Amino acid sequence: MSRQIFISLPVADLPKSIAFYKALGFDHNAQFTDDTAACIVISEAIHVMLLTHAKFTSFTPKAVCDTKTTTEVLLSLNCESREEVDGLVAKALSAGGSTQGKPEDDEFMYQHDFSDLDGHQWGVFSMKGMPPQ
Description:
Order of helices and strands: EHEEEHEHEEE
CATH topology: 2,3-Dihydroxybiphenyl 1,2-Dioxygenase, domain 1
Number of domains: 1
Shape: globular
Radius of gyration: 15 Å
CATH class: Alpha Beta
Helix content: 10-25%
Structural class: alpha/beta
Number of helices: 3
Largest sheet: 4 strands, mixed
Strand content: 25-35%
Oligomer: single chain
Number of strands: 8
Distance between the termini: 16 Å
CATH superfamily: 2,3-Dihydroxybiphenyl 1,2-Dioxygenase, domain 1
């Protein structure tokens, strides 16, 4: 059985968040979208469910954290090349996202990061000699 992962992220403004992820080049699956949630397709195996705060809290009794001051999770995404890493970060910044630092290049990996409009942190990287699966 092939497994898929669905990452649920709380967002303050659903239409703006959809536009942000579409600006990164990811697909939007309208079949799994309504006024409270939207499905962003990162790959055949990875989907991000953008949920309004009200929808998100219907799945958990815990409060939604303020990702501007608290880290809830670190999301990492393998890219095919250094150029793809830089391209995703550039698209994120152009779409209103932010970054915490400069790219890092070491012996085996090139990495950079961005935060989306709600402060969810994405680390994007390319491992030398290891293409994404």
